[in-house]
Queue: 2 jobs
Job 1
Amino acid sequence: MMADDHTEAEALEPEARPADPRAEAFQGVREARRNELAEDYVELIAELIHEHGEARPVDIATKMGVTAPTVAKTLGRLARDGLITRAKYRSVFLTEEGRALARECQQRHEIVLRFLLSLGLDPETAERDAEGIEHHVSERTLALFAAFADRS
Amino acid sequence: MMADDHTEAEALEPEARPADPRAEAFQGVREARRNELAEDYVELIAELIHEHGEARPVDIATKMGVTAPTVAKTLGRLARDGLITRAKYRSVFLTEEGRALARECQQRHEIVLRFLLSLGLDPETAERDAEGIEHHVSERTLALFAAFADRS
DNA sequence: GATGATTATTAGCCTTGTCTAACTTGTCGC
DNA sequence: GCGACAAGTTAGACAAGGCTAATAATCATC
């Protein structure tokens, strides 16, 4: 039955769980996944405000491809987390924190997108992939992407 | 209050919801997110079987950085979805479908990783980022990544 | 072959993210 | 200024993915 020996060795350090290098990577990914949706919303809200002067739930729902109640519930969480402010039956606005996050996301998105395009990818696919990839790119990788895109 | 005009125009097509290009991208991302965890598990299970001859829940839990009950529940879903087989208190095995998925994921992982390394990223960061990115890379992008890594 | 440690499972809770159905509010036209 | 329709909210369901605590099975070992 294999009987492999993972007995002693990792008994030290009051870390948050084992600390297998692999486990850390997965935990990082899970952490990133938790923030993805908030980032997508905040980014979209910033964009809507920029383009239309306000962000209405109905437009968020359309762009995100979800129903209005889903948007309402998510906005509740964003408000709770201090990323947006809103009044009942009114448009949504970003807090300073939300605005900062939006800026950061937009930059990341922009860099990833330019990078994919400079690799020779078609615009539609680049947009789709950037949307998924942007949340999982470390600062270091982002810097390499930016450099590559510029150099091309 | 803006009164912007999204009235007619998108009234046709009995599509699955509006079909804003943006919405499609987000729906694609959400779709990908739903499969990520299953892919991570299947990939890891294949790896454990390859290395140790079997995949035990305890090892899966350690590598994934989650608790045993979480693994048990997730394995239940994987079994339900036909990706693995298992008997109570026994190790886990992949079905043919699971094996195919694992192969596919491993290839993708491998390509993304090689790509990031060939960009000049350090191995640890490359591994972490690859773990997050691999699920969001289209076939087309993957081909470009592979070509780039080879050419380097 | 009984027993103690390790491993696996079950039960039960919580949050997130999605939906539909039903209700309330706002707005625009007349 | 009222009535219809669009937009927003609330209620409630459901699945996924995480956890802890408690229970059950396996196994190593003497």
Note: Residues 1, 3, 30, 56-58, 68-69, 71-72, 88-90 of chain B lie near DNA strand C (CB under 10 Å from a C1').
Job 2
Amino acid sequence: MLNAERGKEPGMNNRSKGSKVSRISEAEWEVLSVLWSKAPRTANEVVEALADLTDWKPNTIKTLLTRLVKKNVVGFREEKRVYSYFPLVGREECLRAENRFFLERVYGGALKPMLVSFLKDETLTAEEIEELKRLLDRRD
Amino acid sequence: MLNAERGKEPGMNNRSKGSKVSRISEAEWEVLSVLWSKAPRTANEVVEALADLTDWKPNTIKTLLTRLVKKNVVGFREEKRVYSYFPLVGREECLRAENRFFLERVYGGALKPMLVSFLKDETLTAEEIEELKRLLDRRD
DNA sequence: TGCCTGAAACTACAAGTGTAGTCGGAAAAC
DNA sequence: GTTTTCCGACTACACTTGTAGTTTCAGGCA
């Protein structure tokens, strides 16, 4: 049990101004997701969890875990010569960061056009629509 | 299955499942955006349009234009030894692709949680909220 | 006619990513 | 106590991306 010095500089890109979190790549996100859903997990448990979703070789997944550790978004504990990994950053926090980044990059930060765009393209059930309207109401 | 090699052509990455459109990088997106806002434009006109938004050197922007051409998302016409560039793909189409990709990657394709997440984090004016509710109504 | 200029083409290069393979050493099995 | 087996550590390598610099060549200018 060690590691996890938040607030480092190298490996942090321009976009993360203010935020302390390095960018997480697509493949890394996938790995991190399984840790969010349940942690701690050993590397092999992560591999197993991803077996249905990807066809990555175990080494690939271990590399990704290592990179996540290096980015300080995942920590680990050694027990009996085997590592157990766990997230160091909350899912909510990361979602927010991804949200903002996407919104900025694709819609120049304009929320409503983005929402409109999604509402036009994707499908929702009647209940979901009701729930969203309720959510919008509560925001006034 | 997230990532299988699904017949990927060179210069086309995993995300372009099925679609023929290559991934557009962040910087490329910026360039493409100015072409969406007005086209055709010469390289220098694009450079000028981006001068306020970025501090990229002209060569950088020309490289990005060239890459967009190579990815078949931008075309050009030569007139009097100068190229005029224009988009070959519609903004709407690209937005849809980005939307879907983001939704899939970050929210596993679940639209409502994504919307909820945005609504929780970001701010909207009263009118925007009204407009969104109207949009939700029209969707039944 | 030869030179300068400006545009496109070509080259560069480090960091990050996807995607593993190989090495070295401890622990388990004989 | 050797051998085998795992596991993490280290190495690999091509492709993409950000971010330009350098070369070349046609056309205009002197």
Note: The longest helix of chain B spans residues 91-107.
